[in-house]
């Protein structure tokens, strides 16, 4: 047994170091993040303990998965991008529905911007003082404020009925963002609104649409990556990424599109099956370049 362990370490020492780095880096991030009073505005009270616990679980589950399953992918003829989905989908869904609205960075303003776009207001209009103001459903402000610190209040907000009251809400920072940054969130909200869903359901639908887009781009990034697929997967599975992916934040598109853009270019450059850049690839590069520049 000792000799087998020795041979395993000798053969896969780089991979083992990658796993150790994954655990150490993420353990440090979670410890610093949830041990700091400065982030209390985003996560506080009972949720602080819950989120830190979930993050530690994600670290060790994903770390163990990488150590014992991913390395067998080649032998078992399992695509690494499929293994990524096996881990990413359940973790993302847990974080999506376990995270109260407004508890990810700047999600309150992202939510307002996505709501405005879903109402057909793609570009923000400033008032006389230069502030971007939209008439948005009053329940949005209540649902995404960062003051929830117990489960009872979180559930009350989730099950609250929609109101017809519209109030002016400011979101100056998000007013500068291009509409495409909040397009999936707005689409989720628009579709659920057509079926008469309440504000809270619309918000979570926006999260799910955003999460689906992020996963699709990350999946294809890993699939297209010609080399170092393990490194791409390693970065895509970091807990910091999963704090953003199942949210209303425009950072989902920025993060996942950056991964896809890098992988796409490397695929065209170093994949032996690509003899020349086709018209389809040129169009794909142009569209990708425009989207990522707007992020």
Q: What does this 3D model show about the protein?
A:
This protein has 295 residues and is mainly alpha-helical. It contains twelve helices and two strands, in the order H-H-H-H-E-H-H-E-H-H-H-H-H-H. It has helices at 2-34, 45-68, 80-98, 107-118, 138-144, 151-158, 183-194, 199-224, 229-236, 239-242, 251-270, 279-294; strands spanning 133-137, 166-170. Helix 11 packs antiparallel against helix 12 (279-294). Mean pLDDT is 75; it is low at 34-44.
Mean pLDDT: 75
Order of strands in the sheet with most strands: 1-2
What structural class should be given to the helix and strand makeup? mainly alpha
Tally of individual helices: 12
Q: What kind of sheet is the major sheet?
A: 2 strands, antiparallel
Unreliable sequence segments: 34-44
SSE string: HHHHEHHEHHHHHH
Give the total of beta strands.
Answer: 2
Please estimate the helix content: 55-70%
Q: What overall geometry do the principal axes of the alpha carbons give?
A: globular
Beta-strand residue fraction: under 5%
Distance between the termini: 52 Å
Task: Tell me the Rg in angstroms.
Answer: 21 Å
Outline the fold blueprint.
Elements: H1 2-34, H2 45-68, H3 80-98, H4 107-118, E1 133-137, H5 138-144, H6 151-158, E2 166-170, H7 183-194, H8 199-224, H9 229-236, H10 239-242, H11 251-270, H12 279-294
Helix pairs in contact: 1-2, 3-8, 4-7, 7-8, 8-9, 8-11, 11-12
Features:
295 residues, mainly alpha
Compact description:
The protein has helices at 2-34, 45-68, 80-98, 107-118, 138-144, 151-158, 183-194, 199-224, 229-236, 239-242, 251-270, 279-294; strands spanning 133-137, 166-170. It is mainly alpha-helical and 295 residues long.
């Amino acid at each position: 047994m000792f000799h087998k362990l020795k041979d395993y370490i000798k053969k896969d020492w780089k991979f083992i170091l990658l796993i150790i780095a994954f655990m150490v880096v993420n353990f440090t991030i979670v410890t610093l993040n949830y041990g700091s009073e400065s982030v209390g505005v985003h996560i506080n009270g009972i949720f602080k303990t819950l989120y830190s616990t979930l993050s530690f679980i994600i670290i060790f589950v994903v770390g163990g998965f990488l150590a014992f399953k991913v390395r067998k992918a080649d032998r078992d003829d399992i695509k690494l991008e499929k293994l990524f989905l096996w881990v990413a989908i359940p973790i993302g869904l847990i974080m999506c529905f376990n995270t109260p609205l407004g508890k990810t960075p700047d999600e309150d303003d992202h939510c307002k911007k996505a709501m405005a776009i879903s109402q057909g207001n793609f570009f923000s209009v400033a008032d006389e003082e230069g502030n971007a103001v939209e008439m948005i459903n009053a329940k949005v402000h209540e649902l995404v404020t960062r003051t929830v610190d117990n489960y009872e209040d979180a559930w009350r907000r989730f099950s609250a009925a929609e109101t017809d009251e519209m109030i002016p809400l400011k979101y100056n920072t998000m007013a500068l963002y291009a509409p495409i940054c909040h397009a999936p969130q707005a689409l989720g909200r628009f579709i659920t609104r057509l079926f008469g869903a309440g504000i809270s359901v619309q918000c979570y639908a926006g999260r799910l649409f955003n999460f689906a887009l992020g996963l699709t781009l990350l999946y294809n990034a890993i699939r297209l990556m010609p080399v170092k697929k393990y490194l791409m997967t390693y970065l895509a599975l970091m807990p910091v990424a999963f704090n953003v992916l199942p949210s209303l934040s425009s950072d989902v598109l920025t993060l996942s599109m950056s991964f896809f853009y890098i992988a796409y270019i490397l695929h065209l450059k170093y994949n032996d099956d690509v003899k020349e850049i086709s018209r389809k690839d040129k169009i794909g590069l142009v569209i990708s370049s425009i989207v990522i520049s707007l992020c």
